[in-house]
Each structure stands twice: as structure tokens, then as C-alpha cells.
Amino acid sequence: MRSTLLRGAFAIFKRDFQKFLNNPFVILMTLFMPIMYLIIFGSAMGGFISHIPIGVVQNEPYLVETPLFISTVDGLSAMQQTDNPPTFDVTVFSDEGSARRAVSDGRIMAAIIFPSNISVDHTIRMYMDSSEYTIPALIQAGLNSVMARYGANYPVQVTKIYGDIGYLQFFGVGVIVMAIFMTTMMGGGMALIRDREMGIVEGYLVTPVKRSSILLGIIASGTVKGFLAGLIILLVDLFVAGIVIDNAANFLLILAVIFTISIGLTSLVVALASRFTNQQIFASSVAFLNLILFMTSGAFYPTLGMPDWLRWITVINPESYGVHALRSLILRGQGLDLIGIDLLALLVFSVFAIAIGIATFRRTLD
Prior knowledge:
The protein is of the alpha/beta class. Helix content is about 65%, strand content about 5%. It has a 5-stranded mixed β-sheet, sandwiched between helices. The protein is elongated and about 90 Å long. The two termini are about 50 Å apart.
């Protein structure tokens, strides 16, 4: 009886292992994924933050720039960690109002206002964008370091224009996008492949329904599922992370962004799924795609901390536009005028992904 048990177990092992060997794509992804996690995750999370945009202003009235202003600007511009790009990109503004507007618009991360020659208390004022993780602390530490180097013992008054934002709030916004992607992967891409394996898609073909309509219907269903997942995580963030939404109009705009993200990510996943007939291969491919997109979206860590070769991926990464739009609305309380580019990029990407999906789906059925 023991020999029969062992022979049966060996037969099952041989068959299952042979299936693994006969699928070189799965073998490749099994070995490739840990390496890519090391490279992508390590570079995205462990890089030196550089090129932080800040603005400086010499307060009026003044006749000439003060020695403190000149020395501090030079010190901040030259500051860098060993063998790394400059830590700060310093822009000199002509007046305090324009510098503060640049912070509110997201063009710079902080505005530093230096006292004039006739200032009484010589207080240096700094208006900080507090919505990015670790960056406010780096800016304040950089300013203190330069002032100490030149022996300037002036008080610094810091105003965080978005209040104190912790990492849970910073990361909570990114989790919304992650939830949408995971839901569209299961409810969009996997559903399409499962229907093809079960012959349901072939059943659609004997009806008057057009092939493009089949794909559009699957994208629509996946979009709604992704939107519901994003909405649930948003509500969880409100209670767990302590996120506050100021008004109903802003809340509706957030829902519009979540819906737009759901369209884009569902279109991407379904377009990819239309090229696969095996759920295992599709899951391996999407896991790799999720690694690249999520790690370079800025959800975990500011994109300023990524190396240049990885930071460029954010330009074509739809999740980075989604994270930026949601963070602008939820954490900064900004409006449609400052997330228009994000919405446009997501819509353009969605149209492109839908077109690719339809073309690929048609070829697959032929």
C-alpha cells in the first residue's frame, strides 16, 4: 500500500512539475520578479531626494540684497549629497506674493522670506508645502545647516500651508489607486480570460453584439467595480487616516477623478488581458506591471527620491497622474484648475488603451 501511495504521489508530482517546465514564461517571471523588486523597489524607496524646488525672497524694503540672503541662497544652491545631484533647485522671486502663489500652485515646495536690513527681529519666514512625505523636514534641515555654517542665528518661523500631514495620510491616497488597479485586474482582466476559457466570449459571437461592444462592456463593468473599490478605500481613509474633505464640491471632484482613474486602469488591464488566454500567465504579467506602475507613482515615496532613469517612467505612468490629482484634491484642497493636466493625461491614456484593446481583441478572435 505504501508503494502504491508513493507511486501515485510521484505521478502527480511529475505531471504538475512538467506543466511548470512546459511554461517558460511563468519560469521567467518567477525568476525575474524578485530581481525587479530589488531594482525597482530599492531604487524607488532608497534613493536620495534631489532637485527639490524652493523659492527665496528678499523682503522689502531694501536697497541691496543682505549678506544673509546672498550667502544662504548660494549655500542652498550648492548643497548636495556625495556623488548625487543638487538637493535644491533655488528660484529667486521678486516679491513675497508671487513666491507664496508658487507654493500654493505646486510649482515650488517652500518659499523662504529673508528679513530686510531694517527688520526688527530678523525672523526668517518659511511657507511650506507639507503634503509631501520627508521633503518639508529636508528643506528645514537644509536651511538650518546653511545658516549654521555662516553663523546666522536668526529665528525661523515655519508655516505649513496644509497643516501637519503624516505618512498614513500621504500613503492613504496612494492606496486608493492600488485598490482600483487590483480590482480591475480581478474584475476586468481575469474576468475576460475566464469567460474565454469557459466559451462565454464565443457565445457572444453568435449574437448580434459587435466584438468591440464585448470589450467595451467588459471595460464598463470593470470601471464600475474599480470605482466602488476606490470609493470604499476613500471612506476608510476618512476614518483611519484622519483625512478631511472641506466641501461637497471637492468631494464630487474627487469621485470624478476616481472614476477617470478607473477607466484608464481598467482599459489598460483589459487591453493586456485581450492578448492572453491563460490566467496564470496573465497574473504573472500584471503583477510585474503593478510593480512598475505603483512603485513609480509616488504613492509610497516622493518621486523626487527616485533616480533619473526611474523618474522618467512617471511621465508615462497613468497611476502617477492619478496619485497626484487625488493628493492635490484630498491633502492640499486644490481645485480643477490645478489637476486639469492630470485628468487630460488619464483621459488620453484611456482612449489609447481602449483603442489598443479593441484592435488586439479583434485579432485574437480571428
